[in-house]
Design brief:
heterodimer; A: 89 residues; alpha+beta; Alpha-Beta Plaits; 4 strands; B: 452 residues; alpha/beta; Anaerobic Ribonucleotide-triphosphate Reductase Large Chain; 2 domains; eleven-stranded mixed beta sheet; two-stranded antiparallel sheet; 15 helices; 43% helix; 17% strand
Chain lengths: 89, 452
């Protein structure tokens, strides 16, 4: 089972490190990362495997959101079903 | 594999274009509450509703977190109370309304629909009693919504009900005059009412429905408007195709959420209503879609055609996206709940007559329209009769939700607050249909209702 984590915010040192640390702490495996810095803005999309996640996914969503607000970022974790259902016949 | 573009598109739809699940509505049958004494009917209804919908809000919140898509409202609809409380006194009917209101508060939901009657062929005792209690019921409750089905293509139009409802609406406006006549914002008069509509104020749990059901209403006028704007100067065929594909994506959200809610609550999945329902929020307007399609302002020439294209494309895309589509499923044009409609009404481009024409090609009817508080009952009944006739003749749902705002005249604005928005008072053409409305009885069903 996969989840998509989207990150938007001002670029700063250590963003990827902080997010991957949080993922590791919850046993979420990062499969793919796509990121860019446009002007001062940092955007990143991570595809993660939540098959072995150690906490309820809804709690992971909250933790990510909290991490975001603590670091001036918007972090949203979303279950892959929402993307699959929208973009596949 | 998920492509980055697809992911960004979905995220943008939710974060920037106001894509949301407008409502998860649990439909609950109250027929089981008929067994027992009248004195405890309201209690039985309260118990049933609060028991069955106990986890509705919690489940909605969980699904919201799971998928990251806002689920704006959780609601309940019940079996038309006129059927359930038939034979009871008017006081008991009002007690039932109060019980539904209390249940809604207990559950943490903002509306509960079903204080309703189905009188398309004539009145039952329950239907007659319920209609008589509507003004009081809507003035002593906050969250209860009421509806009356006065016509169907098969049955014709119950003009006695139409005549009475003109008076009922005025009385409701008067009794709630201190709150902008808000009672009228919770009362819908229908032709061909759907039995599985998840949207308020017209939601009720139809008599052919199972014990309990989950129906979902999606919404995404902002998403469609953005897609249309991005498309630029394309042909009609390309425009229709684009709207269709966008409607597919929007409806798939509803399907996903409906399935998950059904699973978690242990309640059968009913339908997805794929309607485009606006809110007063910026960017969430159906009128702006029509303007993005090339109209200078909603209500000008070309509006009906544009809306017909939109409504049809939404249905075509949505139907492919869901295993079961129902409810109203089309474009909504509620004036007070759409920033673009409000602007068009204020500027005089959008008139009541144009709205009536538009209802012939979309799904809702004359919705959330404020008219002068001194509009005579017969004229209100005439407006209802007109709108209902469109539905009956075209085998479609039409409805009327008019607010004759007490003490207000053309040019005033009535503010209901929240999702109900604010409405500029619109002009009603002069001339009285009083002699016509007073004839009594029913207008017969049209010949094309004989389909066997």
């Amino acid at each position: 089972m996969k989840a998509v984590i989207s990150v938007v915010g001002r670029d700063a040192i250590g963003i990827i490190a902080k997010i991957s640390a949080e993922c590791a702490a919850c046993s979420v495996n990062i499969l793919d990362i796509s990121q860019s810095v446009l002007h001062d803005y940092f955007t990143m999309i991570m595809i993660t495997d939540i098959g072995a996640i150690s906490i309820p996914f809804t709690e992971f969503v909250d933790r990510m959101a909290k991490l975001g607000s603590e670091n001036g970022l918007e972090i949203h974790a979303m279950h892959e079903d929402i993307f699959n259902s929208m973009h596949r016949i | 594999m998920l492509s980055t573009d697809d992911i960004l598109e979905t995220i943008s739809m939710i974060r920037e274009e106001c894509l949301d699940i407008r409502t998860i509505t649990m439909g609950i049958s109250l027929f089981g509450c008929c067994r027992g004494d009248e004195a405890h009917l309201a209690d039985r209804i309260y118990d049933r509703v609060t028991t069955r919908a106990r986890d509705l809000v919690k489940t909605g919140d969980e699904i919201e977190k799971l998928y990251g898509i806002p689920i704006v409202n959780k609601r309940v609809s019940v079996t038309p109370v006129a059927l359930v409380a038939d034979g009871a006194s008017p006081d008991t009917f009002v007690a039932v309304a109060r019980a539904l209101d209390r249940a809604a508060r207990e559950l943490g939901i903002n509306f509960i629909g079903g204080y309703s009657a189905l009188v398309q062929k004539g009145f039952t005792d329950g239907g007659r009693t319920l209609i008589g209690t509507i003004p009081e019921a809507l003035s002593v409750t906050e969250r209860v919504c009421s509806s009356v089905n006065v016509a169907s293509t098969k049955a014709g139009i119950n003009m006695d009900a139409v005549a009475e409802l003109g008076e009922t609406i005025l009385k409701t406006a008067y009794l709630t005059r201190d709150a902008g006549s808000i009672g009228c914002a919770k009362l819908v008069v229908f032709a061909n009412a759907p039995e599985d509509n998840p949207f308020m104020a017209g939601a009720f749990h139809g008599i052919g429905e199972p014990e309990t059901v989950i129906n979902v209403g999606v919404s995404g006028p902002g998403v469609v408007a953005s897609a249309v704007r991005r498309a630029g100067e394309c042909s009609f065929a390309e425009l229709a195709e684009l709207i269709k594909k966008t409607a597919f994506k929007i409806t798939r959200m509803g399907q996903l959420v409906a399935r998950e809610a059904s699973l978690r609550l242990g309640v059968p999945f009913g339908i997805v209503d794929l309607s485009l329902a606006p809110t007063p929020a910026v960017g969430d307007s159906v009128a702006y879609i029509l303007e993005a399609m090339g109209l200078e302002q909603c209500g000008c020439a070309g509006t009906t055609a544009a809306l017909a294209l939109l409504n049809d494309a939404v249905k075509k895309g949505g139907v492919m996206a869901s295993s079961r589509v129902g409810g109203l499923s089309g474009a909504f044009i509620p004036v007070s709940e759409d920033a673009g409609m409000i602007a068009a009404a204020r500027s005089g481009t959008l008139s009541l007559e144009k709205l009536e024409a538009m209802t012939a090609v979309c799904s809702v009817g004359l919705d959330m329209i404020a008219i002068p508080g001194d509009t005579p009952a017969a004229v209100i009944s005439g407006i209802i009769a007109d709108e209902i006739s469109i539905g009956v003749a075209n085998t479609k749902t039409t409805a009327v939700r008019l607010i004759p705002a007490y003490g207000c005249k053309v040019g005033d604005t009535v503010d209901f607050g929240g999702l109900l928005g604010e409405a500029p008072v619109m002009a009603v053409r002069g001339g009285s249909p009083a002699r016509f409305i007073a004839r009594g009885g029913s207008i017969p069903a049209p010949v094309h209702s004989l389909k066997n």
